Amino acid sequence: MISNQSRTPHSVLPSLHSTLIYRPRSYVERLDLSKLFPVARPLEVELGSGDGSFLAAYAQAHPEHNFLGVERLLGRLRKLDRKGQRLGLSNLKVIRLEATYVVEYLLPRESVRALHIYFPDPWPKRRHQARRLINPRFAEAARIALELGGKIYLRTDNTEYFAQMTEVFTGNTGYREIQTLESLSTRLTDFERDFAAKGVPTRRAAYERCC
User: Fold this and answer.
1) Of 106, 98, 111, 96, whose CA–CA distance to 26 is shortest?
2) What is the Cβ-side half-sphere exposure of residue 87, based on CA atoms within 13 angstroms?
3) Which of 19, 70, 164, 206 could form a disulfide with 180 if both were Cys (CB 3.0 to 4.6 A apart)?
4) Which sign does the torsion angle of CA 182, 196, 45, 69 carry?
5) 87: CATH
């Protein structure tokens, strides 16, 4: 029998349910950002967070912003969850859903300061290219989610997909092209480190919502 004196106080026990993974009460209503984050701050969203190395480090470096990671694969989501918890990040949440659905149906209008889309699946086979994330409908949905002056940052290693990305965003009059900040370009994703080691260049583009 364990005596009362030897028991660890409940208040200092780690929570068995501690997680940064957010499960919305409704998947057909816009997210209530006040339910996600304890403090209201400008919101940045990464679509397709990979192993979470970029977003966890970026959120740690920018405590003045809130960050939402969107990832469909559960294993990757859990990696980001663990990294964020180890760093004690109160400004980071992650959600397991398709990126297009989150942007079009869940993000509140004009709520996002920046969208990060790095190395989305290029679907290189012609018969699969309709599945690509970046298309005119997505660009317009992203424009609605972004606040005025909000920015979208793109990276890919695929030359043909990059051409499609730039065509889509330059074709939408609600955006203007801008330069990616050097401080952002130097923060690499897991995919980017692998590509760089193989000598594969990264292609970058950035756009700002202008109307």
Assistant:
1) 106
2) 23
3) 206
4) negative
5) 3.40.50.150
Q: Is residue 192 part of a domain?
A: yes
pLDDT at 17: 52
Angle value at C-alpha 101, between 131 and 178, nearest 5 degrees: 75
| Mean pLDDT, residues 57-65 | 97
**Does residue 23 belong to any structural domain of this protein?**
no
| Residue 6: pLDDT over 80 | no
In a domain, 141, yes or no: yes
The torsion angles phi and psi of 151, rounded to 5 degrees, stand at -125, 150
* C-alpha pair distances (Å), 165 with each of 14, 120, 172: 45, 11, 11
Distance CA 44, CA 112 (A): 6
Instruction: Report the percent of the chain where pLDDT is more than 70.
Output: 92
Give the Å distances, CA to CA, from 7 to 14, 15, 106, 140. 14, 16, 44, 57
Q: Contact at 8 Å (CB) between 139 and 168? A: yes
What is the residue-averaged pLDDT of the chain? Answer: 91
Task: Report the SS3 class of residue 205.
Answer: strand
Number of independent structural domains in the chain: 1
Catalytic residues: 121
